[in-house]
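Note to self: keep these together.
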Amino acid sequence: MRWALGARGGLRMYEDWKQLGKEYKESRIPIRNKIIELKNEKARLETSKYRRKKAEIEAIESKIIDIDDQLKLLNAMDRDLQEIGRESEHYFDRGWWRSEKYTLNSRHAKLPTIYYGFIEYECECEGWNQ
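Structure:
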């Protein structure tokens, strides 16, 4: 049993990291439903702005802009929940490379250290592969 911050908030106890990852994936469902709802509303507004007065068209377009802003935020939240869920579900799997976005891992090879006398210099070479 481990204590961890749950996807829905609050400190909870989990059997393993896979359970935590599944909870993050399940917490995406309401966000995805809201995204679908907003996309349908946007499509309805776009089709309803034909044969309208100019003032009505401007009001509809401002609503569409607001919906686009909400969609950007919800899509970012959905993407983050998906990535964090995947990371936590596979965190201890052998061979799973943890994302550089959420950990301190780096795929870059460490540059060699050159010692000259008693002074240590770090190489700043591009394309060093070892």
